[in-house]
Structures are given as structure tokens and as C-alpha cells.
Q: What sequence folds into this?
């Protein structure tokens, strides 16, 4: 079904693995297209309640495959046609998304991770803006997410200097959620994903929608959006189950509806 990615769903979790390990999982047009197709599957499939994006081999993703850029390349069009649809799809996916950063994340590979809701980093992972070293600017949502995650000063430093930072440094500036030792990498990522996949999925989707909206809304608008969102969350079975479980002093069983 796919040639440049692997995609499978188990226990409510979709695993999307970038799969060009000999090129450090660098993006090609085919890979961008396949990722968008997989993301649409995730959005449509009610059985999927969490998405994990990771990389095959020693890298997460090294950004655009530089071997495919020619002198006549129109970078704006490449972004509009290949990268922006991928980032828009991720931003509007109302399910939790984890970037499981197994190794280096560079250029648009880092942008992809920034557009996820959680970044779990292996202790051997590193992050590098990279764009500046080839005379480009951060793209694929990088200039949107980076300052929001780390603040303006750190964003300028990382983007302008393009220095590689370790997983632990990334954690210390709030760029990654958690650093995971190599020996427990797979188990910890799986249990983090399964935990999310067993939570009230609709409420998680609404949280994501309204946190995104909050950057462009004032308090009065947000108060109303919260009222609309709470109305939607309040009619879910998961809300009823949560209240019943609390009153009955038992663990809730959420089904994502
Ligand atoms: O047109 C547009 O605007 C499109 C959008 C662009 C967005 C972008 O992503 S621009 C940024 C593109 N990415 C980069 O500039 C990163 C380039 N790669 C690196 O800086 C380094 O490879 C890494 C820091 C990622 C990893 O370094 P290291 O030392 O661990 O590995 P390496 O030895 O450099 O690379 C290993 C192999 O992967 C090597 O191939 P080889 O020699 O073994 O045959 C290398 O050429 C290949 N590789 C790594 N990155 C890319 C790549 N091949 C193609 N494209 C790459 N991006």
C-alpha cells in the first residue's frame, strides 16, 4: 500500500514509520504524499485513537532529500504542494499525535515533530534546524511552532545558528516532552501511546482544536468557544462514563465516543 512509509494500527494506536533509512528518512514527494494519505486514514478511522510518527533505522527524519533539489527548484511551490498539506492535516487532526524521535530530526523532519502534540525523544536523538546551513529558512510550520514552544529568543538562536542540540537540551527548553533511555524506548513509547488511546478521544480532539484557536482569539471569544466545546464534550458517552466511574469509585472505560 505504501513504499516510503510503514503504517499499521494496533490496540487503537496508528504507527506511521518513515521508511528510507539509508537516506535518514529524508522526504521525497512520494513520501509527503503517502504521509498525507496515511493521516487522512487516521482521521477517518474511528478505531484509531492515537497516532505515533517515528523513523526506521538510526534517524527520525533528515528533512527534504537534498539529492532531489535542482537549480530551478521553486521552493515556495514545493512547500505549498508537498509540505503544507502534511502540516495542515496534522494540525487539524483531532486525535493525539506523538512524534517518537528515535534519532536525528533535521530541517523539515524537525518541523514535522514540532507539529505533533507530544515529542518523545530517545536519549540518542538530536534536533537541528539545519535549514540555515543550506541558505534556507525554517519551513513546514517551523516558524509557527518553534517560537510558541521555546519563546522568541531561543527560537531565533536555534533557527539562525542551526546548532544541533541533544535530547536532554531539547527537554530543558521545553521542546520535547520526555527523554527515554534506549533500553526502554519501545515499551515507553507504546505505553504512552496506549494511555492516550484509552482516554476520551473526543475531548482530546476538542482540547487540541481550542488550544490552537486560542492564539488568534481574545478572552471573550475563548469563553464562548469553551462553552461550545464543553457542550460537545458533555454529550459524549465518555463524559457519562467518567462521571459514573467517579461516583462508583472504579476506573473509567473510555471508548472514544
Ligand atoms: O524546496 C524546499 O524548500 C523543500 C523543503 C525543504 C525543507 C528542508 O528540510 S531543508 C533541510 C534539509 N535537510 C538538511 O539540510 C539536513 C542534511 N543532513 C544533515 O545535516 C546530516 O545528515 C544530519 C545532521 C541529518 C545527520 O548527520 P550524520 O552525521 O548523523 O549523518 P550523515 O553522514 O550526514 O548522513 C548519512 C547519510 O544520509 C549520508 O549518505 P551516505 O553518504 O551515507 O550515502 C547523507 O548524505 C544522507 N543524508 C542525510 N541527510 C540527507 C541525506 N540525503 C539526502 N537528503 C538529506 N536531507
A:
Amino acid at each position: 500500500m505504501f513504499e516510503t512509509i510503514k503504517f499499521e494500527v494496533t490496540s487503537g494506536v496508528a504507527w506511521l514509520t518513515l521508511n528510507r533509512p539509508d537516506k535518514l528518512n529524508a522526504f521525497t514527494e512520494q513520501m509527503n504524499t503517502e504521509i498525507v494519505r496515511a493521516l487522512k486514514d487516521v482521521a477517518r478511522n474511528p478505531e484509531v485513537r492515537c497516532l505515533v510518527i517515528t523513523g526506521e533505522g538510526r534517524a527520525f527524519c533528515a528533512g527534504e532529500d537534498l539529492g532531489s533539489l535542482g537549480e530551478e527548484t521553486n521552493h515556495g511551490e514545493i512547500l505549498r504542494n508537498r509540505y503544507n498539506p502534511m502540516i495542515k492535516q496534522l494540525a487539524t487532526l483531532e486525535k493525539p499525535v506523538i512524534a517518537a524521535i528515535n534519532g536525528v530530526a533535521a530541517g523539515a523532519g524537525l518541523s514535522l515533530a514540532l507539529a505533533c502534540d507530544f515529542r518523545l525523544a530517545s536519549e540518542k536523538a538530536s534536533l537541528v534546524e539545519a535549514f540555515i546551513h543550506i541558505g534556507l529558512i525554517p519551513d513546514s510550520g517551523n516558524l509557527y511552532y518553534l517560537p510558541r514552544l521555546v519563546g522568541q529568543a531561543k527560537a531565533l538562536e536555534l533557527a539562525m545558528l542551526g546548532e544541533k542540540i541533544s535530547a536532554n537540551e531539547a527537554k530543558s527548553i521545553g521542546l520535547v516532552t520526555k527523554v527515554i533511555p534506549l533500553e526502554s524506548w519501545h515499551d515507553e513509547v507504546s505505553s504512552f501511546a496506549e494511555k492516550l488511546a484509552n482516554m476520551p478521544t473526543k475531548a482530546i480532539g476538542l482540547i487540541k482544536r481550542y488550544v490552537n484557536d486560542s492564539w488568534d482569539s481574545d478572552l471573550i471569544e475563548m469563553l464562548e468557544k469553551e462553552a461550545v466545546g464543553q457542550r460537545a464534550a458533555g454529550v459524549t458517552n465518555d463524559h457519562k462514563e467518567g462521571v459514573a466511574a467517579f461516583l462508583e469509585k472504579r476506573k473509567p472505560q473510555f471508548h472514544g465516543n
Residues 23-24, 26, 62-67, 69, 73, 75, 78-79, 83, 104, 106-108, 128, 130-131, 134, 136, 139 surround T3D (CB under 6 Å).
